[in-house]
Amino acid sequence: MRLPEHFDSNEWFILVICLFLIVLTAVLKRRMYYSQITVIFTLNFFLGASLDYILAGPPHDFYDIMDVPEFEVFDLIIYLFIYPFSGYLLLYLLDLWKLKRFLVIFYVFFSSFMTTGLEWLANKFNVYEHNEWTYYHSFIAYFLIYCVNACAFYWIKKARRTISEQMLEE
Amino acid sequence: MLKYLLISSILSLIILVASQYTRRHMHPFEMMTNWLFSSALLFILSNIIELNQKWIEVENTKTVFWSLTFYRLFIIPGLTLWLLFVYSSKTIRPIYKQMCTILWFLVLIKIQFFHEFLGLIQFKQWNVYFSFLEWFSFWLLTVGVWGSFRLLLKKEEVF
């Protein structure tokens, strides 16, 4: 795996965001079982790795991540920390505010809008370089990713509840 | 090439449907986590081997790309889930579990060489030992994550 060519603004940006997300997650009171958190983390790790492979790699090459088009250590840090922790925090707030129906759609829509804004900020730090990709595409992608996350969250909750009920019956 | 894309799509569908059977011994959380983790790991390994090291050169067409992506999204994670299903079964004897592991390695190595035979990929600095090493590290990580997650599920009394 490649190391960054220059340790500059984009690497610092990733490290600061990483640290912020880890500290925020550690400070917040845990509302889910560790098994549920693992599922959410793995889902977002998968979404990051697979979508970046499909969209950023050849033959599509819609955008580049970090300094070089190849896979580097900071790409892995993004997949292992930034995507899973942000996915978890998104669902944490969804659970905390107990949103229902229309509000869930609005929440997902608003979060996608905010994440697109964060991507704009990340672009200023050269984390991403768009080739044939626009912020409109990013917004659609985030909206779909967050919809998958929300669906997974309700499934995880339901699956866990069913198991608890089965255990009580036994 | 289009014919091969069709075959891999049909194979993916069969593997997806067949994986439902693994629910007999595996928890849905376990199935989902293993499937997603192994698929993500395959994309990362592919990035390292094909994009960074260029040990394997891939035909730069969309048909080939999607054929190989179906393998990484469905077929290999599905086969791995079946292997973990065999491991988690208490009725299967250890000798059969070992035989299934060898079979799993042989199938995955064979698939890679079959792709080269079809012209989907070209080996630059690659041989059967590298292939074994790739699948061994993949197996090690997947089984490690599966084992740890299973322990966590048992600790939380999910099953």
Secondary-structure map:
The complex is a heterodimer of chains A (170) and B (159).
Chain A: H1 9-27, H2 34-56, E1 63-65, H3 73-96, H4 102-124, E2 128-130, H5 135-169
Antiparallel strand pairs in A: 1-2
Helix pairs in contact in A: 1-3, 2-3, 2-5, 3-5, 4-5
Chain B: H1 2-18, H2 28-52, E1 56-58, H3 62-88, H4 94-118, E2 121-123, H5 128-155
Antiparallel strand pairs in B: 1-2
Would you write up a description of this structure?
The complex is a heterodimer of chains A (170) and B (159). Chain A is mainly α and 170 residues long. Chain A has one domain. Chain A is built from five helices and two strands. In chain A, strands 1-2 form a two-stranded antiparallel ribbon. In chain A, helix 1 packs parallel to helix 3 and helix 2 packs antiparallel against helix 5. The longest helix of chain A is centred in the C-terminal third of the chain and has 35 residues. Chain A is globular and about 60 Å long. Chain A starts with 8 loop residues before the first helix and ends with a helix. Chain B is mainly alpha-helical and 159 residues long. Chain B has one domain. Helix content of chain B is 77%, strand content 4%. Chain B has five helices and two strands. In chain B, strands 1-2 form a two-stranded antiparallel ribbon. The N and C termini of chain B lie far apart (45 Å). The mean pLDDT of chain B is 92. Chain A: Keywords: Membrane, Transmembrane, Transmembrane helix.
Structure summary:
The complex is a heterodimer of chains A (170) and B (159). Chain A is mostly helical.
First-residue to last-residue Cα separation of chain A:
50 Å
Main sheet record of chain A: 2 strands, antiparallel
In the predicted model, the low-confidence regions of chain B spanning at least 5 consecutive residues are none
Write out the strand line-up for the largest beta sheet of chain B, numbering strands in chain order: 1-2
- Supply the number of helical segments of chain B: 5
Total individual domains of chain B: 1
Oligomer: heterodimer
- Shape summary of chain A: globular
Overall pLDDT confidence of chain B: 92
Unreliable runs of chain A? none
Largest interface: pair, residues per side:
A-B, 31 and 30 residues
Can you summarize the main beta sheet of chain B?
A: 2 strands, antiparallel
Q: Quickly count the domains of chain A.
A: 1
Percentage of residues assigned to helices of chain A? over 70%
Averaging pLDDT over every residue of chain A, what do you get?
91
Helix amount of chain B, in percent?
A: over 70%
Question: Which percent band covers the strand fraction of chain B?
Answer: under 5%
Report the C-alpha radius of gyration of chain B, rounded. 16 Å
Helix/strand structural class of chain B: mainly alpha
Keywords (chain A): Membrane, Transmembrane, Transmembrane helix
Transmembrane segments (chain A): 12-28, 37-56, 76-94, 101-122, 134-156
